Task: structure prediction
Amino acid sequence: MELPKTQGDRIRWGVILALIVAGGWFVSHQFENLDLEQLLVDVSETLGDWTYLLAGLLAFLETGAFVGLVVPGETFVILAGAVAGVGETNVYVTIAIVWFSAWAGDSTSFMIGRRLGRGFIERQARSCGSRPSGSSRSRGTSRATGERRS
Result:
């Protein structure tokens, strides 16, 4: 990493460092009495068998086309593993449900993409005012130069 060269960069990095230190101090003092183990037990008892459904659903949605940008599937899968670790659910069933749901979400996204095709994406991009993707431009370039693509 290169050291900041200008005074403005040094001030910016100083402010960032001060914010990190202040944030760490604030969090450590606000949550000093937080019992994470008891919180995990409470969450486990509250979710119970619903953990299977939620973990499967969120794993499916996360592997969906662009849905993974919005849905925190990995975070909930980790929470589902912690719930299984507490003993509220079965870890092997959790792994099987998450694996199958992720596979099903990925396969569903593939089939939707195969059915709708690249033209659908390009039309949607144009309707939003976006320009074509790089692969579309390169495809046009190779056609213009007459090169054969494999």
Q: What stands out?
A: The chain is about 75% helix and 0% strand. The first helix runs from residue 7 to 30.
